[in-house]
């Protein structure tokens, strides 16, 4: 079982660093914090953390082996993910000032959308596979998979919320529609750049 404190602390550090560094999730949370504020972005942040926890559980329980046996399935998933990321980048790039929108016409990504997004997020796959293959002892494996998944979610939530709060703090700076437009275009460009590992780096399942 996961009883070594050294291993646990090493995993917590891995979870923190991988959760707080830039990636598609944090880019979208930053943009959502700017455009919608912290309170309306909370379901998005919860969807990231809980959806990722479920993903780690699935990888630990054998989904990674399925992709090794059927690499075409993972290839299809990668390109579906690319298409969805491009769609999200377009939505961010074309966002206008909140005051200019019809009431209720603009909504942040919700809990279920954020949770589902983990399955097409290349960084999430790297994090999940790394957590299972590197930090999950074979003895008491099933218990350790659950521990790894829950601890990752506990570390991940406050980490991604840092990006939400930073985005919310920038709202006052980006009141000028021109600056907000420039910010949204930058966030969209970063999302497109995040496609590089998705499309051009070996998956490890082929």
Automatic annotation (TrEMBL):
Transmembrane segments: 46-64, 76-93, 141-170, 182-201
Main subcellular location: membrane
Keywords, sorted A to Z: Cell membrane, Membrane, Transmembrane, Transmembrane helix
Domain of life of the organism encoding this protein: Bacteria
Annotated membrane topology: Multi-pass membrane protein
Keyword Nucleotide-binding: no
Protein's cellular compartments: Cell membrane
InterPro entries: LeuE-type
UniProt-recorded name of the protein: LysE family translocator
